[in-house]
Amino acid sequence: MFTRPLRFLPMGLAAGSLLAAMALSVPTSASASPAGSARAGVVTALGYNSTDWKYRQVPNTTDEPLFYERSFDDSGWRTAQEGFGTTNGTCSWNNSTNVKTPWAVNTDMLVRHWVHIPRDAQEVRIQGTVDNDARVYFNGHLLQTALSGKCAAGAIDVVVPAKYLDCCNLLAIRGHDYGLATYLNVQVTYLKPAAA
Question: Signal peptide: which range, if any (predicted)?
Fold first, then answer.
């Protein structure tokens, strides 16, 4: 499971660090497109607040073996729209505009979504925000363990190695919460090759 990061910083230093991180973060909200997406040739394969996510909420001690595998049977899971989360909290996206599907505090959220990516796509990137932590899988491979603490914007940010790509791909995430508020919202983009 996840290990809660130790926090030894004095309160003033921690608050200052948080403010600096917030000021430096590119997106103004978790559903805003990162600055990199404004570059020519960047295509959104799966956008923020996308629909048709298969999901299951579980106690954070529950083991769900292989839920991130392509062959896993999620037919009994519910289908919903992201962002997942609570509408109360200190983060700017903990509101009814950004939260489309409830995620109870002190639980884990397991989500799965199929993503079509053209074979000639380059720099396939998964980006997003989680409160608190997440494990990000692509076609069964663990790509990132995001330990964002308290909803650090852009804590999920990983480029998918080309060897893991297929035309029909499975993105799976296990979001983990420590209490107070929850949030999870991601997008998948790729760089379209320049015309020859």
Answer: 1-32
